[in-house]
Structures are given as C-alpha cells and as structure tokens.
Amino acid sequence: MFGPAALGVFNMSYEISNMPTTELVAPINRAVFPGYAKLKHDLQSMRAGYLKVVGIIALIALPAAAGIGVVAPLLVPVWLGDKWIKSIPLMQVLAFSGGLVYLVMAIFLWLISGKPPGAEHDLIERVWPIIRKQLPNGKV
Predict the structure, then answer these.
(1) Phi, psi of 92 (to 5 degrees)
(2) Could you tell me the sign of the dihedral formed by the alpha carbons of 5, 6, 7, 12, in that order?
(3) Given 3-state DSSP classes, what are the helix, strand and coil percentages for the chain, each rounded to the nearest 5?
(4) What are phi and psi of 4, to 5 degrees?
(5) What does residue 115 show for φ and ψ, rounded to 5 degrees?
(6) pLDDT in tens, 35-51
C-alpha cells in the first residue's frame, strides 16, 4: 500500500486542486440554498434561478480550476517548496475534477424539488446559453 508520504502528496494535491470549489462555489451554494427552498413551490422560477447560478459558477470555477492545473508547475516549487514537486501531476489531474464539482449543486435542487433539474434535457445544453451571455460578445 502507500505510505504517509504518498498520502501527504495526495492530500496537498487534492486540497489545492479543489480550492475553486471549496473557496468559491461552496459559499455560493450556502447562500443560494435558502432561496431555492423558498421557491420550492415555483419550480419554473427555481429552475431559472438554478441555471443562472450554475452559469455564473461555471464562469468562475472552471477557469480557476484550469488555472490551477496550468500554473501548478510554476507555483508549487515557490509556494510549497521542492519537497512537494511530486504533487504537481496529481494536482493537475485533480484540478479538472475540482472544476466540475460545482455541478453538485444539482443535488441541492433535487433535494428541494424532488426531481433533478431539467431531467428532460442535458444540463450542459441548458447552461451553455447562460454562460455565453456572460462572455464578452457572446463568443468563446
């Protein structure tokens, strides 16, 4: 099995790669959850609000996660020191999953409404137009 050093590398990689979720998305989720609860009898408004929040979070969390993955080779030696160099590849892989964890918000909506958001459509198809509206000129 793996020893304490490997566990330390994994833990450090996981913590840093999930910073967009833990530091940006989780507080937003805590703030909007009561609003969803108030809208539980108006599923149309709740879904519209949910999709707006997911679109905004996607604009924040995904670039932040990608940024962590890209700058890890530069920042780890400076920020954490040379003894953490082994964490860089794992940090880059985990950064991708950390950026997608924001979709867990779907569970909150499911808890409130009793059904998943837009079960009849793919979530990405519903969120992408909202993300595009937030971009300059509506282009990627």
Answers:
(1) -65, -40
(2) positive
(3) 85, 0, 15
(4) -60, -35
(5) -145, 150
(6) 888 887 887 888 788 87
Report the interhelical angle of 26-38 vs 43-75 (nearest 10°). Answer: 180
**87, 13 in Cβ contact below 8 A?**
yes
**How many domains are contained in the chain?**
1
Q: Residues near 83 by Cβ (< 8 Å), separated by ≥ 6? A: none
Residue-level pLDDT, tens digit, the chain, 140 residues: 578 888 888 889 988 888 887 888 788 888 888 888 888 788 788 878 887 887 788 788 888 888 998 999 999 999 999 999 999 999 988 887 776 665 565 555 555 555 555 554 555 566 566 656 655 665 54
Share of the chain above pLDDT 70, in %: 69
Structural domain range at position 103: 4-138
Alpha-carbon gap, residue 50 to 62, rounded angstroms: 17
Whole-structure pTM value: 0.63
Tokens of 86: 């082994």
| Structure tokens given for 41 | 């009898």
d(CA 76, CA 132): 33
